[in-house]
Amino acid sequence: MEHELSLKHQLLDTLERQLKESRDRNELLEYGKNSAFEKQIEHFEQQRQEYNQKIDKLQVDNLEKDRLIAQMQHKVERVQEEMERKRAEMEQSRGAMDKEKK
What is the mean pLDDT of each run of 10 residues along the chain (102 residues)? Predict the structure, then answer.
C-alpha cells in the first residue's frame, strides 16, 4: 500500500513536471511568435514610411515638372503669337511694296 502510494506520488510529480515543462515550452513559442510578429510589424512600418517618403518626393517632382511645362507652354504661345504678328506685318509690308511697284 505504501509502495503504491509512493508510486502514485512519483507519477503525480512526473505529471506536474511535464505540465510545467509543457507550459514553459508554450510560453517560449508564444514569445517567439509574438517577437516575430512584432518584427514583421516594425519592418512593415519602416517600409510604409519609406514608400510615403518616395510618394511625397514624386509628388513634389511632379508639381515642379507641371510648373515647368506650364511655363514652357506659355513661352511657346508667346513665340507663336509673335511669329503670327511678324508674319502679318511682313504680309502687310509686302502688300504695300507691291502697291508701290504698281
Answer: 87 93 91 88 96 98 98 98 95 84 70
Nine cell digits for residue 79? 513665340
- Cell numbers 514583421 label which residue? 40
Q: What is the pTM of this model?
A: 0.54
Residues 56 and 50: their CA atoms lie apart, in Å, by 10
Please give the single-letter amino acid code of residue 9.
Answer: H
Grid cell 515638372 — which residue? 65
Question: C-alpha 43: how far from its chain's center?
Answer: 13
Q: How far apart are CA 26 and CA 19, in angstroms?
A: 10
Residue 23 DSSP label: H
